[in-house]
Amino acid sequence: MDTTAPDSGTTSAGLPADTDAAVRIRGLRKAYGDVVAVDGIDLDIARGETFALLGPNGAGKSTTVEILEGYRLRSAGEVSVLGIDPAHGDLDWKARLGIVLQSATESGVYTVREQLTHLAGFYPDPRDVDEVIAAVGLVAKARTRVSKLSGGQRRRVDVALGIIGRPELLFLDEPTTGFDPEARREFWKLIRGLKAEGTTILLTTHYLDEAAQLGDRAGIILGGRLLDVGLVDELGGASARVPIVRWRESDGTPHEARTERPAEFVASVVARHGGEPDALEVIRPSLEDIYLQLVHSAGAEAHDDEEALA
């Protein structure tokens, strides 16, 4: 498994030749007593890359991200974020980060514009407040107190607060929770615009289509370990992306087969049945299919290991 950023001049063993990666992690471990939340992660994220960190609840995503943000101390390993150990990051380093936490802001004293204007004053080169308000689709709510906004609108305020300082590295933790489908797609446009400006983005999301739309690469974490890391359209390897042909026999029995030549296989099925059988379809595995396959496979292997040791 190659966990390093593409085109970074890394070795086959994953050793970094590019020490100027936006995020560099080696042997990251975090334990709470006997409970290990993160267990030996190695990962590089290149500058300007959008990296999606995926995994079920409790997999170690939030702990990993909080260590990178400087909110949580690690138990072992080496970590560099924008060239600085986050355990010792000062205010200048923090000003280079944008952070959108998973929970929505509860601040209700200020209006949207007032809150953004206040925060912008802490940064050396902030974005224009009105441009940010427009970018997150809150022009009509600019003079509304945050406490009067809907959950989805408060989430947009969180995103606005995360990007107002023109960050070099933006952390997005479940950023579109509470967004309707149209709002999610508008948000995707905003993220693509930030990427075009050179912003490095670390995204955690349960929406696999979001990771596929926005991510250059993705990593799947389970039990505190990275199961796989790669380009979004190559994750899981070639075998995981072989198309599946499904159909149902006349007696109702379902069938499926994997084949690298689905058109030829479908033609043979149709010829054998003297016509198109019921429920005939060709499925090309999506990122969600591959994600579920990797997670379920890893879970089954862990269960087998536990039984072997029992």
TrEMBL record:
GO terms for biological process: response to antibiotic. GO terms for cellular component: plasma membrane. Keywords: Antibiotic resistance, ATP-binding, Nucleotide-binding, Transport. CDD domains: ABC_DR_subfamily_A. Residues 23-248 form the ABC transporter domain. It is a peripheral membrane protein. It is found in: Cell membrane. PROSITE patterns: ABC_TRANSPORTER_1, ABC_TRANSPORTER_2. Signal peptide: none annotated. Pfam families: ABC_tran. Gene3D superfamilies: P-loop containing nucleotide triphosphate hydrolases. SMART domains: AAA. One of its GO terms (molecular function) is ATP binding. This is ABC-2 type transport system ATP-binding protein. It comes from Agromyces ramosus.
